[in-house]
Design a protein that fits this description.
- By secondary structure, the chain is of the alpha+beta class.
- Strands 2-1-3-4-5 form a 5-stranded antiparallel sheet.
- The chain is about 15% helix and about 20% strand.
């Protein structure tokens, strides 16, 4: 894993999740594959394998670059801006 320029600017501790599911999928009545947590604001969105891609859409809408898996037992992080695991 590498460090990108966005990681040092993340809030510490990480923000609490704003929910336990993808609210965008819930509102649309859509199913998701996996969940992602925005490490800037706590938004929970679905992964790019999901039909709606709400985590990527959140990055596009807000510019919040780093997320982590919100799946049990997973802790990896991804920087959308740098397109790398961090």
């Amino acid at each position: 894993m590498s460090e990108c320029t966005h990681v040092p600017g993340l809030p510490r501790p990480e923000p609490p999740a704003v929910g336990d599911t993808c609210l965008g999928c819930q509102a649309a009545g859509s199913a998701y594959v996996h969940l992602r947590l925005c490490l800037q604001c706590g938004h929970v969105g679905c992964c790019d394998s999901s039909p709606e891609r709400h985590a990527s859409r959140h990055f596009e809408d807000t510019g919040h670059p780093v997320m982590r898996s919100f799946e049990p037992g997973e802790s990896w992080r991804w920087c959308f801006a740098d397109q790398t695991i961090v």
